[in-house]
Amino acid sequence: MPDPYRRLCEQAAQRPPRLALVLGSGFGDLTNRIQALESISFADIPGMDQPSVAGHQGLLIRGTWAGQSVLVFAGRLHFYEGRLWSKVVQPVHIAQQLGVRILLLTNAAGGIRDDLVPGSLLAVNRHIEWTEPYCWRRPLTVCESPYDRALLDRLRQAARELGISLPTGVYAQVTGPCYETPAEIRALRSLGVDAVGMSTAREIQTGFDLGLACAALSCITNRAAGLGPGTIHHEEVLACTAQAGAQVGDLLERFVTNLNQRAE
After folding, report:
1. Are 47 and 86 in contact (CB under 8 A)?
2. Using one digit for the tens of pLDDT, what is the confidence trace for 190-218?
3. What is the pLDDT of residues 154-164, one digit of tens each?
4. Which domain holds residue 34?
5. Least C-beta-crowded within 10 Å: which of 13, 24, 175, 252?
6. Is 97's pLDDT higher than 90?
7. DSSP characters for 135-173?
8. What pLDDT shows up at residue 158?
């Protein structure tokens, strides 16, 4: 085990972080709100690599935020980068091993539902995973939602306290790296999907299977393919998350503050 990661694990054992937060595309500046105790590169963590996608720093930070002991993954790995799924979900395993009880993921997503325009936020309450080959040929199975109802309520309460609109909805994960076609978006819409992206569902399902309470917050950065003007570009995604960063940071900070006040 590399020395930086060993030290982080030893320190976490003394004060286990209660919450793990994964920061999606373009949300790296939120780390400025955290009092960092240790910060290490993904490359120094067994089973992980540095992200190759712009907007993902590739740092693991142990620290405090609003009085809460937290573990923050600034960036994530994606299947479309050529990573194995085991590496994509490795942060969730690390969080669970270090004593985390709550997993909160953020992501950038394309809006499918009519009210989900760029800059709006969505609290995910269910997901569809479209990451297997020829997934459209398989019948959909309705499973228990891995999203914790109490955490969802706390996210929405934090939004109400700040005057932020935070509807709930269904998120679909696709593999990428190409953005979806208009035909794929029509298919997802017919299945009741509200937003689409290239992360989160597998990570959340892994967390749920490991016994963590899970939640996810999507920042809508663009209208999905065929629903808006022009071509979708990653630069557009990063520009929108940068613009929404302060609001997302305020929301997460209020959520963490309330979580600390209502700790069991």
Report:
1. yes
2. 989 999 999 999 999 999 999 999 999 99
3. 999 999 999 99
4. 3-259
5. 13
6. yes
7. GGGSPP------B-HHHHHHHHHHHHHHT----EEEEEE
8. 97
Alpha carbon separation from 157 to 21, 22, 160, 167, 251 (Å, rounded): 19, 21, 5, 11, 10
> Is residue 209 domain-resident?
yes
Joined together, the tokens standing for residue 182 give 């208009």
Q: Are strands 213-223 and 102-111 parallel, antiparallel or unpaired?
A: parallel
The angle subtended at Cα 140 by Cα 108 and Cα 135, nearest 5°, is 65
Exposure string (b/e) for 130-165, b if CB count within 10 Å is 16 or more? bbeeeeeeeeeeeeebbbbeebbebbbebbeeeebe
The enclosing domain of 61 has a CATH number of 3.40.50.1580
Please indicate, yes or no, if residue 220 is contained in any of the structural domains: yes
DSSP one-letter code for 114: T
The domain tally of the chain equals 1
Do the bridges between strand 213-223 and strand 121-130 make them parallel or antiparallel, or are there none, so unpaired?
antiparallel
Residue 264 lies in a domain: no
This prediction has a pTM of: 0.93
Domain annotation covers residue 173 = yes
